[in-house]
Amino acid sequence: xxxxxxxxxxxxxxxxTLRMAKIDFGxxxxxxxxxxxxxxxxGDYAIVHAGFALNLLSEEEARETLDxxxxxxxIEAELGLEDEEISSKGL
Length: 91
What we know:
The chain is of the alpha+beta class. The chain has one domain (5-88): SH3 type barrels (Roll). Helices cover 30% and strands 40% of the residues. The chain is built from two helices and five strands; from the N terminus they run βββββαα. Strands 3-2-1-4-5 form a five-stranded antiparallel β-sheet, with helices on one face. Strand 1 (5-15) and strand 2 (18-25) form a beta hairpin.
């Protein structure tokens, strides 16, 4: 399963004619393509998948999504499930 994860846009710039951004995912900064979101600006939150920003969302929506992802990780840890077990069980 692939997830799109929300992050905060901290910087916008052009690289080889592409609109790019640095996005903060809770302290982890990644370079992301912003071509699909011409309206995005510094301080916005974006959903990112495979290095591409796909959609903008509010700070509240971003926090709710991140909280849900953290809960999933905690549940998996509590159940002692390894990545292979999770995949084989369709979780």
